[in-house]
Please model this.
Amino acid sequence: MPQTKIKKRKRLSRDEREQQIIDEAVRYFAEVGFDGQTRELARRLGISQPLLFRYFPTKGDIVKRVYEEVYLRRWQPQWEDLLSDRSRPLSDRLNQFYHEYTNAIFEFEWVRILVFSGIKGVTLYQQYLKLIHDKVLDRICTELREEHNFPDLKKTPLTEREFDLAWNLHGGIFYIAIRKFIYGSEKRENFDAAIEDSIAVFLAGAPTVFEAILED
Amino acid sequence: MPQTKIKKRKRLSRDEREQQIIDEAVRYFAEVGFDGQTRELARRLGISQPLLFRYFPTKGDIVKRVYEEVYLRRWQPQWEDLLSDRSRPLSDRLNQFYHEYTNAIFEFEWVRILVFSGIKGVTLYQQYLKLIHDKVLDRICTELREEHNFPDLKKTPLTEREFDLAWNLHGGIFYIAIRKFIYGSEKRENFDAAIEDSIAVFLAGAPTVFEAILED
DNA sequence: TTCCTTATTGATCATTTGATCACTTTAATA
DNA sequence: TATTAAAGTGATCAAATGATCAATAAGGAA
Model:
């Protein structure tokens, strides 16, 4: 009756162990928030708690790396080209973008760590909001002007109200993720239909409102 | 040179002190999250830390009362009548509702404690989402059917896709509050214009999409 | 196989923090 | 004014928790 795996002290290379710690830290902190304890994190990793401090000087450094790990590698630069690709209808582009974007973003770890970061006053998510503003909403508004022959950008720069409307679309979609991962009140896995409908409403309704806005 | 008010140990009645503690706890926990310390809370109140435990058996009880204090007294039952008042255009009703709703809800304390509650797994906000679903979105969808002579509710109950679209409007508006109070990336105080525009887009775009949905 | 670098750990420290309790002080009231 | 119920406090406990360090052991190099 061999008690397998009760004790298998394994010696890993510096890089392997470090990555292993970060991977588990992402999972753990996403679950319980950043006031989770180093002892519990070590327990989940099957290592001693002091070993963590051999790889990271302080707990704060682990948290910092978790942020980086979660935020980086998610944004796909080709999305910027996709949104601006005028050889395809804007509706197609928006649907493809939000389909891929939500597939990349709608993950337990990502959404929760995102929200935690806002609470703890971390500036990283503010950078992310800026990314959305500059790379997504700006393009959406620009393409809408083009598609409907609205005033040229050079003469009339994008207005705050146009951005607000694009935020409303984006925020409405992101709010699905909040309902799902923060409040657990949304059980579905697939939101393609909801997203398609939201885009359809936006594209059907926004031109009218934009027209009124741009008259001033 | 009299040092006024340096020490004015005031003896309050049970009820007064209790309310004072809760009021400050709402402010404090909204600011730093629920892992704020009882010592700091007591310091802000100008009382000793053990006194807190004379009024609440545990810290958890203070937190519980904070939730209740923040959630209760915000929802106005007359909003339900407002949304259903067919003597006025739906556009007017939606604008008035969201104007009053955001005035009541868009507060630092309310939004942050709301988000914290989701993270800590408190069920209170799930109740709040249900309230929105049942008392707001349900009415919006119902009124849209009426206004556009869509299929009768008795024959075709409201579909998930209709609710999704209403959620998109509501979530988009609520996301303004998240940007403002959680991420601090929104400095404006007044969002009436943004909200009016969002409602306009919804009312201009939703009927088309609803029509398509209801054909199935 | 032996040596030696370094990954890993047990024991422990210092601080933080929720909670308790005996004692003090306030102010209403008899 | 003296009495007394209860509001309020200082001292302190116990557990939790981040961090340190000397000692141990894994596994590649010689």
Notes: Chain A has ten helices and no strands.
